[in-house]
Amino acid sequence: MVYSEKLAERISAYLESRAVAAEEKKMFGGMAFMVDGKMCVGVTNDDLMVRIDPAIYDEALKKEGCRQMNFTGRSMKGFVFVEQSALARKESLGYWVDLALEFNPRAKSSKKKS
Question: Mind listing the pLDDT tens digit for each residue in 93-105?
């Protein structure tokens, strides 16, 4: 798996500074940070992957460096990628991680494989 370990370390440090217990899990060809058993944020290649409230999805896409998450040829509403260049400042990384943390309690868990 090729992903920005530096970005993953920044995410881990930010979550720790917020006293958020997150489980790191390799998925989507990168690293995902699971909060309460649900994918919250992650790193794929050099991008931050963020799970946000679908109600703010269109507005989020207008932000610098943000684009649709598209793995299968169709976008996944409620999931976005943010380019690493838009995350240079700690505040900008925190903005996106906080959006994901805010939505996490309302996010649905994925179905467990049996």
Answer: 999 999 999 999 9
CATH code, 40 = 3.90.1150.30
For the chain, the domain total comes to 1
Distances (CA, A) of 90 to 84, 87, 107: 12, 7, 25
- Which residue from 17, 13, 92, 18 is spatially nearest to 48, judged by alpha carbons? 92
- Mean pLDDT for 15-36 is 92
3 DSSP β-pair partners: 45
- Say if residues 86 and 50 touch (Cβ distance below 8 Å): no
- Sheet with strand 47-51: strands edge to edge: 23-27, 30-35, 38-44, 47-51, 75-82, 66-70
Average pLDDT of the segment spanning 76-86? 93
CA-derived radius of gyration, the chain: 13
What is the maximum span of the chain, computed from C-alpha positions, in angstroms? 42
Helix (H) or strand (E) holding 77: strand 75-82
